[in-house]
Amino acid sequence: MKDLSDYRKSYEKSELLENTIPDDAIQLFHKWFYEAEEQEDGEVNAMTVSSIGLDGFPKSRVVLLKKFNEEGFIFYTNYNSEKGKAILQNPNICISFFWPTLERQVIIKGTAEKTAAVISDTYFDSRPEGSKLGAIVSNQSEVIPSRAFLDEKLKVLENELSGSEIKRPENWGGFLVKPIEVEFWQGRANRLHDRIRYQLNQDFSWKIDRLSP
């Protein structure tokens, strides 16, 4: 067994105080996201999506956030995948972001629903041709015999659709996650981290609390 007891880091880059934050959780997310764009390497829009599977177990996976605004957070997937089926059965999910350079994470609880077809169509049309073909070829989460099987399916589809417009398959599209709770975590020294939680009220204002680290 590998002992990780000595893996330690002191978080001292920033702070999160009530007198410097907006009343609206999405405004603060905007601020943090743009700061992450400036300072983080890699895909700052990478987020972990956690859902309850059809087998009753929670499962998490990393996907890419493609749009966010006051209404919520949008990502795209195959609706017939393990992830898609789980969310359609139980739309209560959690998405989270971790930006290590800034020593920050954001945890968002919300409900997911399919985006309108026109939104999914617009995004699909903006994708590179290879990504469009990949979305059609892959029966996501299904067992396949080999990588060669997948590559061959792609070659066949490339020949079939050569020179043709590639349409979005009906089983592929977006999910909009509407937040009901957003927690902002800022690493601090001595493990006394700042945790600020926003909870959505019935009038769509936000209740703000500080949580013990």
Automatic annotation (TrEMBL):
Q: Which UniProt keywords apply?
A: Flavoprotein, FMN, Oxidoreductase, Pyridoxine biosynthesis
Q: From the UniProt record, which GO molecular function terms apply?
A: pyridoxamine phosphate oxidase activity
EC number(s) from the headed UniProt entry: 1.4.3.5
Cofactor(s) needed: FMN
Catalytic reaction equation(s) = pyridoxamine 5'-phosphate + O2 + H2O = pyridoxal 5'-phosphate + H2O2 + NH4(+); pyridoxine 5'-phosphate + O2 = pyridoxal 5'-phosphate + H2O2
Annotated ranges, domain Pyridoxine 5'-phosphate oxidase dimerisation C-terminal: 172-213
* Cofactor binding mode and count: Binds 1 FMN per subunit.
Main EC class of this protein? oxidoreductase
- Assembly and oligomerization: Homodimer.
Say which family it is in: Belongs to the pyridoxamine 5'-phosphate oxidase family.
* UniProt protein name: Pyridoxine/pyridoxamine 5'-phosphate oxidase
**Originating organism:** Flavobacterium difficile
Q: What gene name is given for the protein in this entry?
A: pdxH
